[in-house]
Amino acid sequence: MNTEPAVELEDVTVSYTRDQPILSKVSLRVNMGERLFIIGPNGGGKTTLLKTMVGVLRPDSGVVRLFGVAVQRFREWWRVGYVPQNAATLFERTPLSVGELLRSGMHTGKALDPVETLSLVGVDEPDKIIHRRVSDLSGGNLQKTMLALALINKPQLLILDEPTVYVDQTGVAALMNVINRVNRDWGVTVIIATHDVAAISTLASRVVCINRTALYDGDITHLLSSEELCRIYGFHVYTIQHGHRWSET
């Protein structure tokens, strides 16, 4: 694995109101090609962490870098694909067609064809859906379109915030298969914040647990076999296997 950093945070503190930090002195390094899951209780700061990574929020203190560049000076945003929490609601009333939306996000000569990208994320009959209004899509196809928008430029870093919310088991499996594919075939660095511990319990990946600060950084297998998860969430946590091991194909 490439040891060059894609994302670095050094002693990052973020507050919405004075003297009440949502994140406190968080340090984190994610190397190129790595796949990282961020878990933690609701209100623990997962979304705040991702927003800080992409410069939506400015930290009170500390340093954030993307590909070695301070985030406030970073300009090569085609290298980053970001799907915020509930991203689909941002576009559910847009008059744009799916094709127009995807083409609006194309910023490099290496960008994928919109139909090809829709096929990649599992949209059925992408050559037909490309002409439909975004506002007319089903919830599932709208979420897939948001993921296609994040992938259209073949980014080097993909950041997803709670992508499995309101997705059934089949949808979660399909999403994880896409993530595995772009991580393996493109070398994309993947960072996913999720509340769904069970959904990732069959994946051998690095996990960071956030509850105001970074409380755990390591292998998920060790985490699930210890009492650490209970301490992080503040109550006993039961993990229920989804009964599906995500394909690496």
UniProtKB/TrEMBL annotation:
<dbReference type="InterPro" id="IPR027417">
    <property type="entry name" value="P-loop_NTPase"/>
</dbReference>
<dbReference type="InterPro" id="IPR003439">
    <property type="entry name" value="ABC_transporter-like_ATP-bd"/>
</dbReference>
<dbReference type="GO" id="GO:0016887">
    <property type="term" value="F:ATP hydrolysis activity"/>
</dbReference>
<dbReference type="GO" id="GO:0005524">
    <property type="term" value="F:ATP binding"/>
</dbReference>
<protein>
    <submittedName>
        <fullName>Metal ABC transporter ATP-binding protein</fullName>
    </submittedName>
</protein>
<dbReference type="InterPro" id="IPR003593">
    <property type="entry name" value="AAA+_ATPase"/>
</dbReference>
<dbReference type="Pfam" id="PF00005">
    <property type="entry name" value="ABC_tran"/>
</dbReference>
<feature type="domain" description="ABC transporter">
    <location>
        <begin position="7"/>
        <end position="237"/>
    </location>
</feature>
<keyword id="KW-0813">Transport</keyword>
<dbReference type="InterPro" id="IPR050153">
    <property type="entry name" value="Metal_Ion_Import_ABC"/>
</dbReference>
<keyword id="KW-0067">ATP-binding</keyword>
<keyword id="KW-0547">Nucleotide-binding</keyword>
